[in-house]
From TrEMBL:
The keyword Transmembrane helix applies. This is AzlD domain-containing protein. InterPro entries: Brnchd-chn_aa_trnsp_AzlD. It comes from Compostibacillus humi. The lineage of its organism: Bacteria, Bacillati, Bacillota, Bacilli, Bacillales. The chain crosses the membrane at residues 6-25, 37-57, 63-96. Keywords: Membrane, Transmembrane, Transmembrane helix. It holds the Pfam family AzlD.
Length: 98
């Protein structure tokens, strides 16, 4: 019984900070520059997650990952679907490692 209460308590404490902003942020009005800054956070987080992986695709040859990342950027600038951008980058890295 104690374990169930601990699990329920931990799930509530974890869920609470995730649910509250969904209701509170909707009612707040921010200045335009704050909205612009907040909208850039997902891209910054995504870049922080992807960039180390680009450099460590082939540990001895980081330029292969960099070339794959550049190809992905070029394909994205052409407005291709995200799936096609990822496939293009993967195919580039695969061909360079042969």
């Amino acid at each position: 019984m104690t374990i169930i209460m601990i699990i329920l308590g931990m799930s509530f404490v974890t869920m609470l900070p995730r649910v509250i902003p969904a209701f509170v942020v909707e009612k707040l009005q921010f200045r335009p520059w704050i909205n612009q800054w907040l909208s850039a956070i997902p891209y910054a987080a995504l870049g922080a997650l992807i960039f180390p992986g680009i450099l460590s695709v082939v540990p001895d040859q980081p330029f292969i990952g960099i070339i794959g990342g550049i190809i992905a950027i070029i394909l994205a600038l052409f407005g291709l679907n995200v799936v096609l951008v990822v496939i293009g980058a993967i195919l580039t890295v695969f061909l360079l490692t042969l």
